[in-house]
Structure formats: C-alpha cells, structure tokens
Design a protein that fits this description.
Oligomer: homotrimer
Structural class of chain A: alpha/beta
Largest interface: A-B, 31 and 24 residues
Strand content of chain A: 15-25%
Distance between the termini of chain A: 30 Å
Order of helices and strands of chain A: HEHEHEHEHEHEHEHEHHEHEHEE
Shape of chain A: globular
Radius of gyration of chain A: 20 Å
Number of helices of chain A: 12
Largest sheet of chain A: 5 strands, parallel
Chain lengths: 352, 352, 352
C-alpha cells in the first residue's frame, strides 16, 4: 500500500485494490488461518453518528483477526462530543489504539482525522462524501458472484443524484474496461453531469426498471428518500416504477446479481429475498471480510505514505457548510490540485 | 441437543436440560479448562430493550469461553431500531456472528428471529413471554444448593399472575417428581388456572409468608409491582405481608434456600443478604456458568433440528397486541399444535 | 500491595507507588511481553457518569494485557441506574468479573463499592473527591520526562480551589523531598488553606502565568470553568492571564514540561501543541500504561488487606449532600480517624 490511511478509494492504486480483494478472498476461504493475526492489537471505532451495522462489521472484522475494540457509537451517549474538539480526541485515542475507524456527519472529517492520528485511519463515512469500504465491498461482491470486474452492464436504480455509494461505484467500476451503466431514476434524481464527465463512463438512461432489467448483468438498488420528491403525491405516483419485485425479476437474466448497500426501506420487495439472484445479504457478510483485509494490511504493513495537501493561498477558503472546516476551523484550509483541475478543498473536495 | 435454537425451554428434551446442567457444573468446577474453547468466535447480543445485567452475564460468559462480543444495548442509541426490520437485522448480524442472543419487548420475537438467523439464537426475554436461561439458572442453583431437583417444597412469593420467571419455574420443576408448590400471594395476583391444569403441579395456597415459610425447602421471591394493586392504599396495606425480613427468616428451616431473579425492589430486606440461606447473589453468578454451557453446546454441536411450525389456515391470525406479528406482519402467521391442544400462534403462543 | 482496592492513593504505601511506576515503565518498554498476562480475565467498567476517554483508557489497558471488558458507559442508557441500588449492582457484577472500575458522581461511592465487591475495585473518579489513577499518571509522566519526582518547581495554574487533580498532585508530590509549588490563580480560586497545612507543602503564589513561567520545571495546567467567576465580565477580563500560548512559552525554560489532565477548553492555545515541551498528549498515552500496571498488580497479587473503617458513634452522621450516604443511606455510616485528626466520614472524608 502506498498511503497509510484509507480516506478516499482514489488515494490507493489499482494494485492496492487488487491486493485488498485478493487478501479478502483468501481470508474468506480460510478464516481460521487469520484468527490470531492481530492478537494484542486494538481498533478504535469513533462513530460521531450512529451506524450500528457498519460499526458491528468493523468490530467483528477486528475480532475475527484476534484483535479487540474500543470506541463509541453515539456522540450523545459519550462525553467526547461535548467540549472536546476532533484534534484532541484523535490525538488521544490514537495513542491507545493501532488503527482507527471514524464515521462523522461532516464532509472531510476523516481526512482531517488522518492529519492528527498517530495510527492509520479508515473512513467509514464522512457525511454524504465518501465511504470507501462500502465500495470495496461492492467490488468484492461483484468479483465473487460475477467472476469479473469488467465487461459488465450495471443498472443503478434509485436516488442517483445524492447517493454516495452509487457515485463511488461508478468512479470505481469506470477504471475497469468494458463496463456500461444504465441509470434508472427520475430525471430529478439522475446522476450529476460532472460525474459523467469526470469518469468518462459509458452511460445509458432508462426511466423504468421494467424496461431495462432484462439487459442487466448487475442491478444496484438504493433507497429513494421520500423527501427528495417534489411532493408526496409525486412520490406515491413514481415509487412503484423503481421497486424491485418478483414480477420484475421474472424479466431479468438468470445470472443477474442484485446488490443493495442496505438498509432498505421498501425498494426491494421481501419476496425477492429468497431468489438466488438476490445477493445483498451475502454482500453485507462479504463486507466483513473486506474490512478484515483492509485492517490487516494497514496494521501490518504500516505504510508511511500520505496524500499531498497543498497550503491554501491568501483568502482561499472552503464555502461548503457541510465541510468539517466549518465546524472546526482551527484545522486550517488545505488544498488538493490535480493536473489541469480546479483547486479543491483538501477535506470535502468542493471547488474553492 | 435436538434443536439449534434456545427459544423455549420446552423445545429441549429433559436429557438436554441435564446435559446443560452437567456441563455448567463442570465449567464451574474448572473454568480455566474452557477459557479458549470459543477462541475466534463471536456472540451478538441484540437488546431491543435494555437489560444491562442479563446482557453482561451473556457477554462475560462468552469472554470466559475465549470468544468476543458485538451488539447493542438499547434501541434508542442504535441506528438499527429506526427503519430496519427484524428480518434484515437478523439476516445481516447473524452473518457476522456464530451465535446470537436477542431480547425484545414483543412476545414471539425470538422465535421469529430464529427463522431468519444464519446461526443459533438464544432467547434472553421476549416481552412477558419466555426467558429460558433464567429458568436454567434457577435449576442449576437448586441443584447446587439443594443437591436435587425433586421432592422439594417450593414457595413462590409475589406477583404470580404476571411473573414470567415463576411460570417457567413451575413448568420446569413439574417435570421432576415429588415437587410441591406453595403459592404466597394476594388472590388477585395468584397463578393463572391454565398453568395449574397444564402442568398438573401439586399446589397449595397461603396468604402470608409468615404462615408457611417454616414448611419450605425453597423460597422463590419476586417483585410485586405497585401498579398491580387496586390502589396505593391496598399496596401499602398488603406489601408487608410479602416482604422477607430477618424476623421471618427465624421461622424458616436451617437449610431453606432463598432465590430471587433480581433486581429486587424492597421485597427482601437487606439484612437478609448476610444470611447463608440467601442464595440470590450466588444465583446471579451461577447464571454466567449456565450461559457458558448453553453457548458452548449450541456453537460446537451446531444441532440442525428446528421446532415444527405449521402454516396458518385461511383467516387464522394472532390477535395478541403484544405479539411480534402485530409489529412486523411480513413475518407471516405460523401455528403450533399439540396433540389435543388448541391451535396457537407459533410466536407468542396465544390461542388463535 | 498492602490493600486490595485502589480507592485513595493515600491507602497505598510509597513503596506501592514505586512498584506501580516501575512496572508501568517496564510495560511501556516492552508491551508485548505482557500481552497475554490477563488472558481469560474480565474487567468491569461501571461508569455512572460518562467519561469516555477515561473509560477507553481502562478498556485499552485491559485489552493490552490480553483481558476483556464488560460494563456500561452511561446510566441513562443502562437499566441498572433505575431501581437498582449500588450494593446489588456491585455484588452481581463483581461475580462476573476479576476486577472492577467505578466512576460515580457521588463522593465516597468507590469506597462504598469496595465494601460490597467480590473482586478488587479501582476508583476512576467519585464526584469531586478522588481520581487516583490520574495522579499516578501524573507521577509517571514526571518521572519519564523530568527523570525524577523530587526537587521540582511545579507551577499549578487554573482553578486550584475545586480542582481534584491539583489537590491530589500536591498531596502526592509533597511526599517527595525538595518540591516547591507555585500557585497561579485568582485569589478566589486559590488552594484551600487546609491542604497547605495538611501537606506542609512549600508554597508560593503568583497572579500571572507570564510573571513566573520562567522559574518553573513543570507547569500543570487545568481548566477554569466560567461559572467559577463572579461574573461573565470578570471571566472575560481574567482568563487571558491564565491562558498558555506560544508567547508565554518563549519565556519558559528549555526543559519545562507542560502537563494537563485533559480535556482542555481554551486554556492552552493549540499552537503550543507542537512545542516539544507540551507533554499532555503523551501524558494521556502514559495513563494507559499506568492503568495496565495497576490492573495487573491488583489481579495477580490479590492483596487481601483493607483500610480500617470504624463504626459510627450514636448520632454521628455525614452532612455532606454530595456524599454517597445521602443517596444510598442503607450503606451505613463508617468513620476514619487518624492520630490526632478529626473523625471523618469514611466515604467522602468530610469532618463529622
């Protein structure tokens, strides 16, 4: 691995991705071989917003490597949230632990934490921004159930405008040849243009699941939140079009793989659960093996690389109200700049 | 063991009960021999209502077997309670773990969980319905302190109408020969008639602890909740009759054993705590060894049997408002039917 | 060790202190040698008020010794706080565990817990009264960074009237020869006279950090809570005098050591964090090693001594409204009496 922390999947090379996926497969095949690999090591899970399943997945991963866990699951039941800033908490807790997982409602918080931490940091979700272990889980699931990460026709259904996991999946799968994406959503909730441009992904659009499910190798379902629609009536009128049920499954290929990051609300009918093409529960389980691989690599390799953050110029500061800098300004503006691209906030990645 | 899950003590054979009790005794005698028995294994404790001591007892049991724990202790501090249904949670969490303990305010929830779980399920209390590890703890305690499970005169004092642990204890002890039960309660809070019929237990009634304590081998105390009485005045007038104090202990046999499932409110005076016949604190400790035995047997034997649940007939559905089916109807009605008995809800066991 | 429990640092001999500090150093030098020392053992952390970092420090300490943890972190998310008294909780939980850590808002609660516990008890803070593992951490830090515990000029800045850690540090450091204390605070927040008398400490007073920082070997910073001041205006006017910043650091000796029990509010400017003389983050990390040493000694040595508590005389009872006896009177008044001193409550140590 070339960097110490997993903040953004893009910080890692494609070789690193493969290394994680191969190790995850190896652990999955023979978990007992790894059951004492991290004996005596401690993972801290700092969840500034509750996400019980994600946290349990990390905790179980650490335990299955022989390690142990400290942390908190909810700022409101912890004394840390009141009065103590992110920097001091990370400095202190990273002194107790060997690796640290952070989930935080502010965008860029995980990058900020990595600046202060004495040990590797894994981003388990920073607001609506990134959630790289979910994307690695998706890749691992596709590799296991489809046998390949290329030449796939991938349907993406639901809220494609705000869906963090969908954006990451498109970014990730665009790096493998021959993948095509079918966007299944209302026009209001379709993928942002900049993502299409940025990734160069091959895109088709479709306004009903029924119309295109027959062409897909993979169907990635996500929640549509009612509050995204213009009105309650609009929601009631449209939601049926994007609900996957047994009837629509009859139109699909026999080797379709249905994924979902979970939790679902009602966008997948429970009758679909028993269909062998429904892999979302296995996907959740696979997430534990992927997290085992990531934790093991970061703790044992102790890579010392870091992403380069540039100093801000006079007067340059991030205007994104959801950025961690807004809540904890002492962190100080830093900047990312890629060849030819705009200067962006090093934390939330908004253009400056 | 002939079934995979411990939902209802009645699902297990008497041989299974003995197997658990013997193993618990063996672990109690030489705990270090078992201290790595479940190395690398994970217990999930899913507490949909808080019960800190019960949860700690399970967690300590798993740790003393060399295993580790994940879970939550309070739905309000967890993201699982909001939005996610029981089925999805159980499917996902059982994918992370080797055995699962559930406590839930709805009756029948543990049976429902066992339908969805990829690993064995232990019922740690489903509403006012069942709590089988408490009853096994009571049996283990009686075996240790009385040396036998038969030919005992057992006084049951407190709220016998609603007390889940009392009902289970009578059911369990009625399966051993020669046991007699003395019910010590107000007429309003006495044992339901169906339980007397069902168990065929030998019953006497007594309206004051003082009058019958001298005859007892075992006194099983329980809380009387003030709200069970007709009025505050009635409570104030009656409660003294059912409070165990040093004075009443002077009337008891020298080898009486006083049990209580704890926590107590004020039905046992603290002055009794130092009497060697007070075994309730030891009883709590014994609970940990019983839970070690149960966990160890279910994880290592992986029995694949299950209780037979019948499909519901047209129009048949459970009307119990406290049943898990009321809250999560997608689970679907199932039915239990015993020779000659009524058809009952397979979850909460109410007659249909 | 001559007593079983660590309630008050004064219960231990100076030899015991050295034993703890030497062991902590040994663990710090070679932690892996101790990584299975407490395999199969359980630490219970019972936090009746949240203190996330202190609890994580104890948990991490136990894990790094190969042991595991149970407990609760917040009475409001636990079922124990409602209805169950301290005695029953301690009796039961100590039956599950090998050592117990308690933090509680009432003064004297840890001493009370030690009366009921089946295993050793460590006081992790009982109201504003004692917090001995913090003081041992301070001693360990001074030994590591200054190389000695004597002949030090120690500045104490902030709220010296109510600051529990400051009082304990003065008591502790007064037992080593040649230490002098410089009190840096407003007159309203200076050290109580009885402490000066009791310890016989060599004291100087100074009303500005700037004026005396140049003379100090050690600067122990603490929070000043706004509500301690006469008015908001008074706070605003005075607080700058007691804030440590880079400018004041320029006046200090090159080998000054700045300590702080953390969390800080704004009494140390973040610019000081990168100064090598700022040792407060290392101090927090050292706390974990000190706690490892204490836990290891108490669990493995199982000392059976206890502090002598005298029975109360007729009519003698503690009037301190923050005493644990006020909340849980069944515990019963006990008394401490030292040669020539007044009779004091054995729990909160207030004069009777």
């Amino acid at each position: 691995m070339n960097v110490r922390d997993l903040i953004d999947l893009g910080d890692f090379t494609l070789d690193d991705w493969h290394k994680i996926l191969y190790l995850a497969e190896d652990i999955y095949q023979d978990p007992m071989r790894y059951s004492s690999a991290l004996h005596g090591k401690i993972l801290a899970t700092l969840f500034y917003e509750p996400s019980t399943r994600t946290q349990m997945s990390f905790q179980a991963a650490m335990m299955r490597l022989g390690g142990q866990n400290i942390g908190f699951k909810n700022p409101s039941s912890s004394s840390i949230s009141k009065g103590e800033n992110l920097k001091d908490t990370i400095r202190i807790v990273s002194g107790y632990s060997d690796i640290l997982v952070i989930r935080h409602p502010k965008e860029g918080s995980a990058r900020a934490a990595s600046l202060f931490s004495a040990c590797p940091v894994i981003n388990a979700g920073d607001g609506g921004h990134l959630h790289p272990t979910q994307t690695l889980t998706d890749l691992f699931t596709l590799r296991r159930v489809k046998g390949r990460l290329q030449n796939l026709r991938i349907g993406l259904c639901g809220d494609l405008k705000y869906g963090r996991t969908v954006h990451s999946l498109i970014r990730a799968m665009s790096r493998f040849p021959g993948n095509r994406f079918t966007l299944i959503s209302t026009p209001e909730l379709t993928l942002p243009d900049y993502l299409v441009k940025e990734t160069g992904a091959q895109i088709e659009r479709c306004d009903s699941l029924e119309a295109c499910i027959g062409d897909l190798d993979v169907l990635y379902m996500t929640r549509i939140q009612q509050e995204r629609f213009a009105s309650k009536e609009e929601y009631a009128r449209q939601k049926g079009v994007y609900i996957l049920d047994a009837e629509k499954m009859r139109l699909a290929k026999p080797d379709l793989a249905v994924l979902h990051p979970l939790p679902r609300i009602d966008e997948i009918d429970r009758a679909v659960d028993d269909d062998p093409r429904a892999v979302y529960f296995r996907q959740a389980e696979y997430g534990m093996y992927v997290r085992m691989a990531i934790i093991l690599l970061l703790v044992t390799e102790q890579p010392d690389g870091a992403v380069t953050l540039l100093p801000a110029r006079e007067g340059e500061h991030c205007a994104n109200p959801s950025c961690i800098l807004e809540a904890e300004p002492y962190i100080g503006q830093k900047v990312l700049e890629e060849d030819g691209g705009p200067r962006r906030c090093a934390f939330c990645e908004h253009a400056l």
